[in-house]
């Protein structure tokens, strides 16, 4: 835990100095990326927060994307339909990387539209 203190101090300093409106999730995620980089991990599994299009996780390179289930939460940000939620979640899909989609994730069209852009 003490390894995170200098990382968090750095991030809070950058946030304040440059007036960057980072959320709690973004700070924790950035801190974890720095920490795991320093630990030289081979593989990191990261779970998205609110939705991939609006999520710090979507900025990371990935080898595999997984969309397991969809629910109507964060409707104020992601919209109030499964289509709009999946439209946002589709941004986790990266060029030339496989995607695993859970059996109850519907409609598929926002995901297919995003995947076919590559």
Question: What report would you give on this structure?
Answer:
The chain is mostly helical and 118 residues long. It has two domains: 1-44, no CATH class; 50-118, no CATH class. The chain is 42% helix and 5% strand. The chain has five helices and two strands. A two-stranded parallel ribbon has the order 1-2. The longest helix has 15 residues, at 24-38. The N and C termini lie far apart (40 Å). The model has no long low-confidence stretch (mean pLDDT 89).
Give a short summary of the structure:
It contains five helices and two strands; from the N terminus they run ααβααβα.
Determine the number of helices (DSSP H or I, runs of at least 4 residues): 5
- Residue share in helix: 40-55%
- Which parts are unreliable, with pLDDT below 50 for 5 consecutive residues or more? none
Name the overall outline: globular
